[in-house]
Amino acid sequence: MAAPRMRLILHSLLILSFCGHLVWASQSISEVNRYPIREPSECELALLSTGELSLMARLQTLSNAKTSIRIRALIFTADETGLHIARILKQKASEGKKVIVMVDALSNLSLANQWMYYDLKMNGVEVEGFEIPWQIPLKKLINLPERNKRYHDKLWIIDAEDAEAAVAIGGGMNIANEYFQIGSARERLWRDQDFAVRGAIVGDMTSSFDRDYKSFKKERESNPDVLNSDKTFPTWRKISNKVLSLIEDAIGLKFGIPVLENKLNRAEGEAVQDDSAKLKLEFKAVKAQFIQSRPRYFETYIQDAYLNAIRSARREIVIANAYFVPGDILRAELKAAARRGVEVHILTNSRETNDLAQLSLVARSLYRDLLSAGEKMHIYEFQGHRFLHTIHAKFGVFDGSTSIVGSFNLDPRSELLNSETVITFED
Asked: How confident is the model at residue 17 (pLDDT cuts 50, 70, 90)?
């Protein structure tokens, strides 16, 4: 009995360390998802199944932007990819276009990232996620459970104000070299899944973006001035510019953005090759719905979408998920599907390919329970080398006709903590 008990203890400890402080709130959601189902006349979709294709689509839409750019990601890294995109954003802002970037602040605390955000703000780009250095430790100490509820959404929205020109990209990819096989991460194969959409559904994605942007602004305004970077930024800009100027004059070296720009310039020849002008995406009219879940507001819309799709499946379920640690309800529905004769195929990372290797140990502790459903249940682990190969995709295909793709992992963080976005569509 000791071994099973130890596995249970290990399972519990890993879940808690992964999720931080969990508070379960039982609340039935009686209202439907706030965004409507869009008919094929209101949504066209193109799949972006490689990082190279997604980057080309992103660069193409940036190049074509006429009125506005809205970008949201968990991570926006100051590497070759990030700096290349930042350079375009600054140019677009200088042309008078509205440019807003939202990132998860606590996931982007590196000095290089914060310098890039600072440079963007200096050049007219609005950045939610930039933090004045002295505010970071103070914010970490305030309301720690709330700080663990992260913003994992990925949205890229161009020209939302023009119904004819509006286009959006969503899925699982952040903005960093490893997603696009660029520069120093050229040898790293991160398998992910994005999509591009046109039509009225872009308005739904924009509504989600603008709603959260307003809530971030409202939260900043409710903070004391010392914790409100919107109010302290002008002072910080004067102080930092003066201090950096004195240091640079004293030692003859450049800091901050010039250093990052030099890094980009050195790698320019082998880093971001912009072939986006050659890209012609194949859009197809589909019936679709944009969904966002924000557990901080007790929303479970994406979880509900998965449960409904699993319960409705009659022939086959295919799930690819980076961090597969499903809760009791999802496991029960997957087993029920297998027992009624549905072929269930689950693809996730092995311990060797998972960038969070401890999660694979937790996932494996659930395999015996899932496989107890019988011969219709199949679990596959992606094989490769640590830090070089990983599945980062999060999608499901049900009976070959209904799909869910986006940022939502089948794990406790996405279910209970993180803000997430997906699109579900019928082909």
From this structure: very low
pLDDT value at position 18?
41
- The pLDDT tens digits of the residues spanning 103-127 come to 998 888 887 888 888 889 889 999 9
* HEC letters along the chain: CHHHHHHHHHHHHHHHHHHCCCCCCCCCCCCCCCCCCECHHHEEEEEECCHHHHHHHHHHHHHHCCCEEEEEECCECCCHHHHHHHHHHHHHHHCCCEEEEEECHHHCCCHHHHHHHHHHHHCCCEEECCCCCCHHHHHHHCCHHHHCCCECCCEEEECCCCCCCCEEEEECCCECHHHHCCHHHCCCEEECCEEEEEECHHHHHHHHHHHHHHHHHHHHHHCCHHHCHHHHHHHHHHHHHHHHHHHHHHHCCCCCHHHHHHHHHHHCCCCCCCCHHHCCCCCEECEEEEEEECHHHCCCHHHHHHHHHHHHCCCEEEEEECCCCCCHHHHHHHHHHHHCCCEEEEEEECCCCCCCHHHHHHHHHHHHHHHCCCCCEEEEEECCCCCCEEECCEEEEECCCEEEEECCCCCHHHHHCCEEEEEEEEC
Predicted local distance difference test score (pLDDT) of residue 215:
87
Beta bridge partners of 169: 156, 196
pLDDT computed for residue 1 by the predictor: 40
Query: What does the alpha-carbon distance between residue 26 and residue 44 come to, in Å, rounded to a whole number?
Result: 37
Q: Which of 113, 115, 61, 111 is nearest to 88 (CA)?
A: 61
pTM: 0.84
Q: What is the pLDDT of residues 253-272, one digit of tens each?
A: 555 555 555 555 544 444 56
Q: How confident is the model at residue 129 (pLDDT cuts 50, 70, 90)?
A: confident
Cα distance between the two ends of the chain: 49
* pLDDT tens readout for residues 226-263: 666 766 667 766 776 676 677 666 665 555 555 555 55
Amino acid at 12: S
Structure tokens at 274: 């912009």
* Bridge-based pairing state of the strands 43-48 and 194-199: antiparallel
Radius of gyration of the chain, Cα coordinates, nearest whole angstrom = 22
Report the C-alpha gap between 146 and 140 in whole angstroms: 10
Q: 383: burial class by Cβ within 10 Å (0-12, 13-18, 19+)?
A: exposed
